[in-house]
Amino acid sequence: MQPICNHGYWKYLDNFAAVLERVWMKTPPTEGRGPTGEKKCRRPKRRKIMPIKSPGSSTQRCLATNNAKRVPLTQKKATVPSHPVPSRVPTKRLTSPLPRSTRHAARPAGCTQNHIEQLPPEILMKILWNLDASSLYCISYVNKLFYKLAKNNGMWRKKYSAKYGESKKLKAKHMDEVVEKLSVMKVQERPEGYWRRLYFRTIAGNNHTKWLKELRTINPYTGLPSHTERVLREQRVAWEITVCDKSGCEGTFEQSHTYYSDSSVTVCWSNGSWPAFHQLSTLQLHGVKKVPLKCPSAIKPGWWSLMAQLDIDTISKSSQGQLSIAFVMATFHYHRLVERSLLGSSICPYTIPENMPPFDDVDPNYGLHGYTLHITLHNTVTEIMSGHFPELFCRKGQIHEGFIQLNAIIRSKQSQHTPLSARVSLPWRSDALEGTVKNCCMMSLTLLDETQMPFWCVSTPVSMVLANEEPFSYDYQGQHFLIKYQDAEGKVQMDVVRLEEQRQFFLINLVIYISIVKVNQHFGRAY
């Protein structure tokens, strides 16, 4: 690891020096003896290099000792007189020192350690044991020596047990687990850095039992946890994007704006200098929670949970020309969002457990009825449309081309038609620019099964395009638009008409198609 030069690190070195002074003051004086009490040889006095100035000549360097005359370096071969030399008379210190580039000329070329690094490892370890977790973590970025010493399992095991193993607020079951972990440590040697990683991982998710209890409260309207937004804000969850170009260079971008809705959150990344689009190779999305330590934000420890890894070719197939990136925007559905953002690892995403409904061999149409749909169209400013449609069903005769059809809004039933409260658009802004993407918005869809458990959850941007063939209608006269979405599990189709007189859009048709493979796998059927 390369040393990092940052003004924030010297603060922790000052703490290190203060602890060093305390430890040194506690050590009894041993004149003429080493740290272990053994006799040691007295080192000769260090020769000093002092500048002198002779009349009519430039400044020269000479050697000065306690028992020799001041001899210029140009006269090193001169013989030293054999008779006793009187002691040197103290002279006034010169006020014109050597240039900065020649002050350390007498230092041996192979000596690169400072005074702290010359201390024995035992003394360094004794000092590090007295540092707190923040200082111990930050000092590991000074150089390779401190990086190796600061990962000692004994120090971090002590800090872990002091913070989590001796807390009276922990339940008895949790205490038994901690004691068991500490006892196993005595028998089995842990790898280097194990307790350091365990300490920071526990801090990053030490309240997971608390927020898991908060997520048990379900909103009957959306079928999702009611306190997802509050948990995300309390846990200070953020999302970062890591891009890698074709040459192998990586760059990380932090989120700039977040927008919460009733069933999803929209995140925008617009700060920083993005590379050209044609130079990108891969893109990774991580959920991040930083550990609350007093250290520079650039090296602040935390937990990264991989949520998505995409190739640029899968994001956009039209990459012709040297396009520049102004912003990146994504929307995340609330279903298991907290778990996906915190409980995964930096290289492996969190696996969502599948909730299997109870098996029913009596109902011949099991898995084809009892669905509930909640759908929302929104952007970064306002909600465009929101609807709740219970008791959706499909007959066996309506299964067509591997999909079951669920009709939420029927074109012929005018009472079901829903107006859009705003224009379909997506506002955006960056550091220097801002604008609006026309005929584009975010769609959040939640389909619940008969047991009111999430069956298909989607949160994605969608676009509204002009229909090629406008259906004939006596009720509406205006332009017809289509909003479509499709993935491996299902597809959505919405028909929107624009009334010129009212200058308003109406949603007149909404159909959900679910893959029959997904239905058979979830309900254990063979349709």
Automatic annotation (TrEMBL):
Pfam families, per database record: F-box-like
SUPFAM superfamilies registered for this protein in UniProt: F-box domain
Annotated segments matching region Disordered: 77-110
Top-level taxon in the UniProt lineage: Eukaryota
GO cellular component entries: SCF ubiquitin ligase complex
Ranges for domain F-box: 113-159
Gene3D superfamilies referenced in this protein's UniProt entry, alphabetically: 1.20.1280.50
CDD domains the UniProt entry points to: F-box_FBXO15
PANTHER family named in the record: F-BOX ONLY PROTEIN 15
Protein name, entry field: F-box domain-containing protein
Species in which this protein is naturally found: Coregonus suidteri
